[in-house]
Amino acid sequence: MGELATASRRKVALATLTGATLEWYDFFLYGTASALIFNRAFFPSLSPAAGTLAAFSTFAVGFIARPLGGLVFGHFGDRIGRKMTLVVSLMLMGIGSTLIGVLPGFATIGVWAPILLVALRVVQGVGLGGENAGANLIALEHAPDDKRNRYAGFPQMGTPAGLVLANTVFLITSATMSPAAFTSWGWRIPFLLSGALVIVGLIIRLRVTETPSFAKAVADKAIVRFPLKEALSVGVGRLVLTLLLLIASSAVAYLFMVFSLSYGTTQLGLNRQFLVLTVTGASVLWFLTIPLWTWLADRNGRRGLFLWGSLVTVVWAAAYFPMINTGNTAVVVTAMLGMGIIISITHCLQGAIVADTFPAHVRYSGSSLLLQLAALLGGGLAPVISTAILTSTGGTAGVSVYIAGVCTVSLLAAIAVFRLNPLPAKAVVSPAVA
Questions:
Q1: Interacting residues of 408 by C-beta distance below 8 A, sequence separation 6+
Q2: Which CATH class is domain 2-209+224-419?
Q3: CA separation for the pair 221, 227 (Å, rounded)
Q4: For 229, phi and psi rounded to 5 degrees?
Q5: pLDDT tens per residue, range 329-343
Q6: pLDDT band (50, 70, 90) for residue 426
Q7: Mean pLDDT of the region 36-43
Q8: Intra-chain end-to-end CA distance of the chain, in Å
Q9: How does the entry describe its membrane topology (predicted)?
Q10: Rounded to an integer, what distance in angstroms lies between the CA atom of residue 58 and that of residue 125?
Q11: pLDDT tens figures, 401-423
């Protein structure tokens, strides 16, 4: 019996990691392309700076759509189960990415090109909005009590794994053809590859069983008609503080993964492939260190590790752009590799922290709302705000102040969250809906 349970949990870990990796692969392809390609392919009539800002704005649209996806998938995830909602979310992301791969550019269909690009970005955002919290829950709710952080870390590993996969495919594609061919049509290949990868992900994900927590909620007749309404009853103060706790990780990650590529190539004249390769290497460290941090959290408690990681993030975020601005290859590599290690500390724990904020029968709805709002306010706005600051001031000092300030707010919120009383073990459950 114990061996069967262990095998089942390993299958869940693999399924959540694989599915999350493919979802983030699709999402990050768009981020890389928006930093390097979309300003010319879809906004050629704008200046380079304005085109980049427009491309990042379409990137941010995906984050605006994520809360919508979180609300829809969260509702049905708490009503009909986690498994099928995750299958649908993966299909949505794959369809959106594949269609971007065949979307004509501005030179072919004019203004319809950026309009359709935005529409497909919305599809991606809705899909990821359902995936993010759901993958965390299906892993955490299958976990043994003494390994909750570790299991919740598996879908979090999908974030850097997706970035590594996206950048690797991007690098290989760009390296095997001329710059003109890559800019003209080669960038489409990574998006078209998404269709095949999603089929693999679906096969793996369909083999996963429903979570014990949801099965128990069904058995106890604890399913409610409006799960989000009950999720909000945990209290406005707790919700706001938890939201603020999450923002820094998302904002820093997208400055590092997306804005750095655009800034490094257009402002500092750094080689595009060098930057993509360095970000990819940093993401490998991000991926590899998550099991270490989650193991430490299970062993010693997540509070101290999360607060320590938040403090280090403030310091490194403030130093990041001064290090990048040196233009020295060794310093740039150090800045990015260090960011990869540091981001992982808080990022790998936030799924478990958010999930434990809510009772199991409304956990999907509550977690989705917080995670997607944090992604919008943090990661969705960070490249746009940073580009606007850079354009208006001509330097990155303001960007450093902005990101260090965001990290400080998250650190203070984390201190407050960990001082709150934990959610009662037996939360009040609303009457079941027939």
A1: 314
A2: mainly alpha
A3: 13
A4: -60, -45
A5: 999 999 999 999 999
A6: very low
A7: 73
A8: 34
A9: Multi-pass membrane protein
A10: 11
A11: 999 999 999 999 999 999 886 54
276-294 residue pLDDT tens: 889 889 999 999 999 999 9
Q: Residue by residue, what is the 3-state secondary structure of the chain? A: CHHHHHHHHHHHHHHHHHHHHHHHHHHHHHHHHHHHCHHHHCCCCCCHHHHHHHHHHHHHHHHHHHHHHHHHHHHHHHHCCHHHHHHHHHHHHHHHHHHHHCCCCHHHHCCHHHHHHHHHHHHHHHHHHHHHHHHHHHHHCCCCHHHHHHHHHHHHHHHHHHHHHHHHHHHHHHHCCCHHHHHHHHCHHHHHHHHHHHHHHHHHHCCCCCCHHHHHHHHCCCCCCCHHHHHHHHCHHHHHHHHHHHHHHHHHHHHHHHHHHHHHHHCCCCCHHHHHHHHHHHHHHHHHHHHHHHHHHHHHCHHHHHHHHHHHHHHHHHHHHHHHCCCCHHHHHHHHHHHHHHHHHHHHHHHHHHHCCCCHHHHHHHHHHHHHHHHHHHHHCHHHHHHHHHHHHCCCHHHHHHHHHHHHHHHHHHHHHHHCCCCCCCCCCCCCCC
Other beta carbons within 10 angstroms of residue 67's beta carbon come to 24
Q: How far apart are CA 176 and CA 321, in angstroms?
A: 31
Neighbours of 286 (CB within 10 A): 29
Single pTM value for the model:
0.82
Q: Domain map of the chain by residue range?
A: 2-209+224-419
Is-contact 257 383, C-beta < 8 A?
no
**Range scoring the smallest mean pLDDT among 12-16, 224-228, 237-241, 348-352:** 12-16
**For residue 173, with 0-12 CB atoms within 10 Å meaning exposed, 13-18 middle and 19 or more buried, which class applies?**
middle
CB atoms within 10 A of CB 183: 15
Q: What does the mean pLDDT of the chain come to? A: 84
Q: What b/e string do you get for 370-407 counting C-beta neighbours within 10 Å, with b at 16 or more?
A: bbbbbbbbbbbbbbbbbbebbeeeeebebbbebbbebb
